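Re: Re: ligand-bound prediction request (bumping)

Still looking for help on this. To restate: I need the protein modeled with FE2/S2 (inorganic) cluster bound, output as structure tokens. Inputs repeated here so nobody has to scroll up.
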Amino acid sequence: MARLLKFNIFRYNPQDPESTPHMESFVLEETDSMTLFIVLNRIREEQDPSLQFDFCCRAGICGSCGMVINGRPGLACHTKTKDLPDEITLLPLPVYQLVGDLSVDTGSWFRELYDTVESWIHTSKAFDPTAQEERMEDSMAEAIYELDRCIECGCCVAACGTARMRPDFLGAAGINKVGRFLIDPRDERTERDYFEIIGNDMGIFGCMGLLACEDVCPKHMPLQNQLGFLRRKMGITALKSFFKK
Amino acid sequence: MQTIYTDVLVVGAGLAGERAAIEAAEAGFSAICLSLVPSRRSHSSAAMGGMQAAMGNCAKGEGDCPDVHFADTVKGSDWGCDQEVARMFADRAPIEMRQLAYWGVPWGRVVPGKGTYYKGGKLYDKEEKEENRGLINSRDFGGTAKWRTCYVSDGTGHSVLYTIDNVCAKLGVEVHDKTESISLIHDGVTCFGAVARCLRTGELRVYLAKATVIATGGFGRIYPGTTNAVICDGGGHITALNTGVVPMGNMEAVQFHPTGIVPTEILVTEGCRGDGGTLLDVNEERFMHVYEPEKQELASRDVVARWMTHHIRQGKGVKSPYGDHLWLDIRHLGEKHITGKLREVYEICTSFLGVDPIHQLIPVRPTHHYSMGGVRTNKDGKAYGLSGLFSVGEASCWDMHGFNRLGGNSLAETVVAGGIVGKKIAEFLQGAEVTFNSSVIDAEVKKQQERIQNVISCKAGTENVFKVRTAMQDALFKGANIFRTKEGLEECVATLQDTLARARKVGLKSNGKGVNPELSAALKIEGQVKMALMLSVGALNRTESRGSHNREDYPARNDRDWLTRTLAYWKNENDDMPTLAYEAATEIFHIPPGDRGYGKSEIIKADTKAEEKG
Ligand SMILES: Cc1cc2nc3c(=O)[nH]c(=O)nc-3n(C[C@H](O)[C@H](O)[C@H](O)COP(=O)(O)OP(=O)(O)OC[C@H]3O[C@@H](n4cnc5c(N)ncnc54)[C@H](O)[C@@H]3O)c2cc1C
Ligand code: SF4
Ligand code: SF4
Ligand code: FES
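Reply:
Sorry for the wait, this slipped through. Here it is.
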């Protein structure tokens, strides 16, 4: 006999004056290879069609479905019920603005981040459509991709003590983004330029180094290395500019 | 109600939409992209394999050029494509890849020296030239004469979309995410923008624009199982077909991908076979080399999917609680390759199947994957029927894919077409003077408000939207799948007509307040069933087999009667059937219809004596 699973789900529709934040329980019988994607859609289709949550790729690729699953931020589509106990609590990600139930607004948060860290290649060169591409070592391309793999799910930010206290903290995802451009030879920004962005409490010096971020990252981004690398690099930049003064 | 003005309104912030918006922004126009999800979560991000462009940098791509790419594309399309469009595409693709490199895409690069590769389970040698060190590399994909697919590990779509979205941020292209376009504002001649529903609050907003672009991607979710993301539901197409004047092209041309995993239908990339993976049957024996001695596992997708289905029908499938399937074997590629270049595949297999592909076989079967059909446009991306309306990317039928698109050609299309059409939009805007007619706008808003009120108050009935949706999906799955017959399609059309009647009676169970997901589904269901009908009626009428459209009762490709593109209109809202028209598949022939060199089938030549068309 399959397990009966009990899901305690956070409910609140800010657009409905009659709605108040509360927890609601739903019971489902477990099936083979069941994921939280299957669970939530079944609840919506069979029990409560107003239940809000976000999925897109349902394959752990797009980063839409971050939520707090039994106390831990993770991707719902990627979570199999067989790895969970009989009772499962689902909460929306903290830090981000709530849209309703399990749905939050990660889009606005990240768009602001792109502007803050200017997450694009800064170059004085113009594109020449008649020229061959500039060469790059494959190992360099792979190193950039390694940092470009972040799917902006927001789990690291939701798990981060600093981010929860400081709304302007860039989070591991934001700091990692700076690292991605810093190693890219096409970007002409100097270390001083990067220092302007992350050499402060909003960036690398706000990080307490407890690494909850790396722990929860579903893409296993090398956040610990990244944060350590940038902290040293920015520390040196700070020293250099101190002596210059 | 909030009204927002912009020069260009791009509905869709995937690769195609954002690439087009960049062209407009660079020409000095304001551009806003709408998206259901944050732009980077658009389905383009899920494309792992890569993009085709004739770079010719790697050893197995030597001698490649746009001519060869063009020829592969036309053959792949089974001569259903517009050859002028395919030509523009193939010529432009290498430049676009370099443009992307300039913007920051970390393309895989050529590493000089000796190496090995697998083909059909066998190991071969190759040597990359020193002089090509560091140029953009390519991998092998199905249906191509050369290794031509540019890639970023197995996160090509992800990396390219992030790069393009970065450029949008830099240029000030606005993205209004969690915003759903639900109808176009038009007077039957000109399109003035769209009415959208905010998916943060549920409120309606009006967007007024001189040019409106539908770049909403595929519509795989009208099928029950698909590799498409859950947001690929045809919402953008519906706004176009509801105008009554904009036709959908070749809706019956639907691609099934050989390797969707069983269960869950998540795609594992063609790169698996491109890199040397093989398909095995219940006896763990290869079979593709028997059916396709030349291309084997790497024949075009329609051909491989067909043979796989055929092989399963011969009783060679592997039985499972989720139906019969076959195996994909990549074990011989080794741990380094699988956890490196195929890392995403490794992760999907381990996390969704509990299968370790380094040591175990992957259960796969052909699964709905791609829509060649869509909003019909001319070669500039202008939609038929309405001035000021454009379409680009998978949502459109531009039509470089005809009846089968090649792996790697779609992601490439998004950026290449995005660039070409974006330029045309900028040209169009140069001269555009538009007067927005307030009575047209008000009438459209009122119509949408009433529609919403009616489903909330169950004015027409209380049909359950999810049940109606399932009925539609099942009908298509049964009748408009890989193999099609007259009987099957007739039954499908009949069921869908019944489903359409039910769709018109949908009413909500919940209160519909705010961002109510039941309401979102309900607002789309009638349009989705109309699309399903366009697809199945188009398939029923097309009494031939071409590319991915296989009629068991008409196995020959019929160039005499069917070298055409279907145009499906929904002329009046209350019609129960689409109205079909036809146009020539291509005005210009660079390559006359011939044999594809794989997927052998009978051909009725254009110059054979005509019979009465039935
Ligand atoms: C799993 C998978 C893997 C693939 N791999 C490859 C590959 O390796 N190579 C290749 O060439 N092709 C591949 N393809 C195909 C290719 O990825 C797609 O065809 C392509 O990415 C489509 O891009 P697009 O910009 O047209 O649409 P999308 O990227 O799907 O973007 C659509 C946009 O429209 C928005 N939208 C939709 N409806 C509305 C609405 N009503 N209102 C407002 N916004 C709306 C969405 O939010 C989104 O922003 C793959 C497809 C799948 C399913
Ligand atoms: S670093 Fe990891 S956890 Fe953080 S947003 Fe990126 S993928 Fe998600
Ligand atoms: S290590 Fe830094 S970024 Fe990561 S969770 Fe801790 S404070 Fe946040
Ligand atoms: S839905 Fe895309 S990561 Fe979960």
